Batch of 2 targets.
Target 1
Amino acid sequence: MVLGEFIRDLSQKGRADAFLALCPDLTLLARLDAAAGVAEETVGEYVESAVRRFANQAGDEDWLALVNATSRERDPGRSCLTLMLAWALRQDEARNEGPVGAI
């Protein structure tokens, strides 16, 4: 699946939630939930937005990290999504001067 198809699939209702159900990283899921709340979006909407932002704004080093990470994984799709979400969360946390949802 190419990135454009992946992004389009995320926009289908429930599709992003299905991807997240496969994510074993509970910390990442909690950060996503908090970030979605701050953005006043569902987690699925936040995921879709995060992937689009990565595709449009990530630098060359970020893309190289993505290619390197996914080339070594048994599940490159999950690895790709996790890396993109972590990137978006770092961007949002930097903008908010700390972890999203931090007290």
Target 2
Amino acid sequence: MRRTSILHVDMDAFFVSVELRTRPELRGKPVIVGFPADRSVVLSASYEARATGVKSAMPMSIAMRRCPSAVVINPRHTLYYEVSAQLMEIFGSITDLVEPLSVDEAFLDVRGAIRRLGAPLDIGHLIRRKVQSELGITASVGIAGTKFVAKIASTRCKPDGILQIDAEDTLSYLHSLPVSALWGVGGKTGEVLARMGIRTVADVAATPLSSLKKVLGASGEHVHRLSMGVDPRPVTPTRIEKSIGAEETFSVDTADDGLLHRELLRLSHRTASRLRSSGMLARTVALKLRYADFSTVSRSRTVHTPVDSAQLIYQVAVQLLESLGPRSMSVRLVGVRAEQLEPAGQTSMQLSLDRRDDNWRAAEQALDRVSQRFGSKTLLPARLLEPGKPASDA
């Protein structure tokens, strides 16, 4: 077992927590972040809402039946990514070994920071204080000798907690947990194991590997290793996102080209804003369409010069849409994605010989500044004020 120096830091109800910074009157109440429409889903729920059975990714219609008193807040993705970038800066001030898992959680290996900042538990407390004081939200921290156990620890101490599992206590702690605590053991796998009388991690560890492989196949060995606390994966720093994008599911399937174009413009602005806040440029723009029968097509195009302008991304997205030709059925979901990313500082910005391209970029940067100060919906392109907005983020 390696030294207990791996931290899993996870924000508590991240989107909700960010929103409550400016709406403190909602603290202690059931709050859901998502669009209030039948085909949208819950993006984040406060712990008060979770107590009624509301979960992330649950259809909003079900969530509202379970918690009719919940306050629903429309998501502000640009704000969440800005706070996420600030969060990652805090992690980076602690150690260079940071492996983000999503916008609100990461693994940290703090071996190199112990002499400077103290024991891992002290570092965990330091991170929680910095997140609270600098960002106004709370974090839960799990500390262990492996990534797997550290993530279990952070989950078990939520919300707003910290839990260290020392190397000598790892097996006894793991073996006290239900089998569902193991990565890779979902509902169906749990049912298979239950039929064998396996209900705890200790039961898995006591089961011959050959028996597990017989019922679980190749994943049997993986599950058995985890039950013994074996997880040799190191914390692997990742610095650059491979792609940035956004997509929307329509409340009603549509064949309206005007509506599709307006949504492409909205998604292009969302994607471009994220690119700029991340300090990235994209060499490729991709379009995604999902039809009423759930079949999905995608098209992409590489541009001559890397972009972070919504107008330029939108132009390419419309061209990709038109390249698909006549559609045989209505559209359920549309998405825009920026790919082949590279840092803006490493690229010569020669958008085109057309001065209007640079004007668009300057205007969008001004929108960024206004949104940062007053909220993402303060200013919108005029076309986006027309009716027909889809109901949910996907």
